[in-house]
Amino acid sequence: MKKFVANFSELVMFKHSVFSLPFIFIAMIVASYHDSGSGWFGWRLLFLGALAAISARNFAMGVNRYLDKDIDKLNPRTKGRPSVDGRVSSAQMLGFIFINAGLFIVVAYFVNTLAFDLSIPILIVLGAYTLFKRFSALAHLILGVSLGLAPIAGVVAVSAEITTWSVYLAVGVTFWVAGFDLLYSLQDMAFDKANNLHSIPSKFGATKTMWIARVFHILAVAFWQAFVLQAGLGLWAQLAILFAAVMLSYEHHLVNKDFTQIDKAFFTVNGYLGFVFILFIIVEVV
């Protein structure tokens, strides 16, 4: 059983949940602060929010691994994935996908009516990323939108509406994720070209891709600043934006200096960014 769980955890790269979880909770904290004067939204929504985020991500990653089996088995970087080497069968992946889709919809039902109404459209967007890279270099932005839905889901859970500040936060997340996905995709630039897969690195090359990633991350910081202003937050939230800008600059420094640092830039830097961002927001509303 332990091995079975470990295989599925590796399949969906569970540790990468650190990218989406902080921003759904940032939105929930700020929404609760606006609604009640307190950033605490209760144990029930904490549990439902975490379950929704995890099941949505499991669904998206399951779809990705299932549909990408034919590609992953050809790529030296991905041919050791459980979906490729037989540790997780196609039938098991399909079961995993449907279980998590069902769980997400059920959780949304118990959150509120708007969350339930949005649950299936959200799943459609989450599943679209894998298909997009087969015909469009805009797949990086689709991945960004997928994670950018997290703050929208957070504010809907607490306030049953979509606020302007949550849209700014979501757009910031979209450009943040799209930017670091561009950097991560540099590893597969040659493979994508050879296999007619669409990506910005394979289309424009490494130098232009890094410039596009810089622009995306500048836009991320700008939209996060707009979020802070629109939400009426103060010094600690401003420090969160400053910290994010510094971490993104460091990420670009790492990748620009040495492509072998892409994994460190992708996981470590972005993981710390989300974690510290939410800590500053918590301090802001306490």
For the record, the CATH architecture stands as Orthogonal Bundle
CATH class: Mainly Alpha
The named CATH superfamily:
UbiA prenyltransferase
Q: Classify the helix fraction into a percent range.
A: over 70%
Uncertain regions spanning at least 5 consecutive residues:
none
CATH topology: Tetracycline Repressor, domain 2
Structural class: mainly alpha
Profile the largest sheet.
none
Number of helices: 14
Q: Label the overall shape.
A: globular
Overall mean pLDDT? 91
Describe this structure in words.
By secondary structure, the chain is an all-alpha fold. It has one domain (18-285): Orthogonal Bundle (Tetracycline Repressor, domain 2). The protein has 14 helices and no strands. The termini are far apart.
